[in-house]
Amino acid sequence: MFLCLSRLSLRLGRVSRCHGDRRLIATVVSGTKTARDVKQRLVLQVEQMQTHFSGFRPGLVVLQVGDRDDSNLYISSKLKAAAEIGINAKHIRLPSTTCQDEVLRNILALNEDPEVHGLIVQLPLDSDKPMDQDLITNAVSPLKDVDGLSCVNAGRLSRGELRDCFLPCTPQGCMELIRQTGVSVAGKQAVVIGRSKIVGAPMHDLLLWNHATVTVCHSRTKDLPDQVSRAHILVVGMGRAELIQGDWIKEGAVVIDCGINYVTDESRPSGRKVVGDVHYASANQRAGFLTPVPGGVGPMTVAMLMQNTVISAQRFLQNQTRT
Ligand code: GUN
User: In 67, 151, 241, 285, which residue has its Cα 20 to 30 A from 16's Cα atom?
Assistant: First the structure.
């Protein structure tokens, strides 16, 4: 067995596949590495903007309500990436006692600020007061909505107007990772697990307009293993630790795991570890390509947010020079 695997590895120059005893080992699709490449390209683009527009820098604001630990972690990685690229990023944290009107007032002021090219409201809102999340995400100007969560951007995406909108960061990152595999999406059976506004629904649209035949599964889907088994491309964003079992997966499929779940692990000093929505060890024996957690979709979400912010700043500059 070892001989068989290692000889094939040498030939393929990557992790081997050995059909004889059914031990397939997926090629790991690294989001960390792809995100690094994207960020390096963005550094150069921002340097060019600074040179040609006398010190101009793209501006990003992350608006947070409350103080959730997970949100704080995500925000700090966004701020760190922005600093590395040369994006001027600002974090505004409103206390959980803030009322909805105050949140809206903040958004409307930031919509008018010419130094802000990207504006995101970190979700979920951690508020003691009643909040209409859709009203809040729709208050962000579509021109600055670098999360792609407003009705205008989501509507354009659903109609296939991909060039005229901001694409939501996680699905956009998933598409980049699928592209990395070299597997073409057109004509494939794609299955998306989860129908959230931030991952599942826009992922469906992106796969559809890249010409896949797409099925979306959710909490009421009957016979999930059967649906999963049909997928050449499987994207999972359900928020349920290790939901998808390896033996459900079609041999050789591309499997993209958007899950970030904390589970107990007494062997670690922290007492917990992070796992995806896919059972990695068993999926690794069936998939052709598999994203790890951590180090898969997570870093790509951040990189795509940075990319959207740079695009928004470029559009702003184009409008300035036209007028
Ligand atoms: N919370 C978890 N992921 C995201 C994201 O991509 N954008 C926003 N705004 N909130 C999130």
Answer: 241
Sign of CA dihedral 18, 19, 20, 25: positive
Instruction: Report the C-alpha gap between 277 and 74 in whole angstroms.
Output: 18
- CATH number, domain of 174, equals 3.40.50.720
pLDDT digits (tens, 9 = 90+) for 34-69: 999 999 999 999 999 999 999 999 999 999 999 999
Same domain for 141 and 83, yes or no, is: yes
In sequence order, what are the residues at sequence separation of 6 or more whose Cβ sits closer than 8 angstroms to the Cβ of residue 170? 198, 199, 203, 237, 258, 297, 300, 301, 304
The CATH code of the domain that includes 144 is: 3.40.50.10860
Domain ranges, residue 94: 56-149
Q: Is the CB of 150 under 6 A from ligand 1?
A: no
Asked if the structure places residue 22 within a domain, the reply is: yes
Q: Which residues are catalytic?
A: 78
* Stated pTM of the model: 0.93
Nearest CA to ligand 1 atom 4: 123
Tell me the CA–centroid distance for residue 267 and ligand 1, in Å: 30
Atom 2 (ligand 1): residue with closest C-alpha? 123
Cβ–ligand 1 contact at 147 (below 6 Å): yes
Quote the number of domains for the chain: 2
